[in-house]
């Protein structure tokens, strides 16, 4: 068991450090199980302006679908190195407000 504590880091940053350590541990041969308990996952809140959205002919459900699709984590395969197999995953990609702002929600051909 490994525990992390910090007076300087918030819960999300401390969880990020723990996640980094787990990634390294999982690359070691014969490590069977790694888990994180506690802490908070970082969250980014997207605030939707209904009037602006309507002016583009879009609905909140379309925005939600676009954000979920852009942030979907999918298995991407694995890499084999020195008799060990390391899983490779894609996502989640939306970590900041800037990331959310770059998501394309709809396209108009008018």
Describe the protein in words.
By secondary structure, this protein is an alpha+beta fold. It folds into two domains: 1-42, no CATH class; 44-110, Multidrug efflux transporter AcrB TolC docking domain, DN and DC subdomains, CATH 3.30.2090.10. It is 35% helix and 14% strand. The protein has helices spanning 11-26, 50-55, 60-70, 97-101; strands at 74-81, 84-90. It is flat, with a radius of gyration of 19 Å. The mean pLDDT is 80.
**DSSP helical segment count:** 4
Helix-strand pattern, N to C? HHHEEH
CATH topology of the largest domain: Multidrug efflux transporter AcrB TolC docking domain, DN and DC subdomains
CATH homology superfamily name of the largest domain? Multidrug efflux transporter AcrB TolC docking domain, DN and DC subdomains
Strand order of the largest sheet: 1-2
Task: Give the tags.
110 residues, 2 domains, 4 helices, alpha+beta, 2 strands, two-stranded antiparallel sheet
Summarize the structure.
It contains 4 helices and 2 strands; from the N terminus they run H-H-H-E-E-H. The chain has 110 residues and is of the alpha+beta class. The longest helix has 16 residues, at 11-26.
What is the fold's blueprint, element by element?
Blueprint: H1 11-26, H2 50-55, H3 60-70, E1 74-81, E2 84-90, H4 97-101
Antiparallel strand pairs: 1-2
């Amino acid at each position: 068991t490994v525990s992390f504590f910090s007076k300087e880091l918030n819960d999300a940053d401390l969880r990020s450090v723990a996640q980094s350590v787990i990634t390294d541990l999982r690359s070691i041969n014969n490590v069977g199980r790694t888990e994180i308990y506690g802490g908070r996952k970082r969250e980014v809140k997207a605030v939707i302006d209904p009037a602006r959205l309507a002016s583009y002919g879009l609905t909140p459900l379309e925005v939600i679908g676009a954000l979920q699709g852009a942030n979907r984590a999918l298995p991407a395969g694995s890499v084999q190195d020195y008799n060990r197999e390391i899983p490779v995953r894609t996502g989640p990609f939306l970590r900041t407000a800037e990331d959310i702002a770059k998501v394309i929600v709809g396209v108009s051909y008018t």
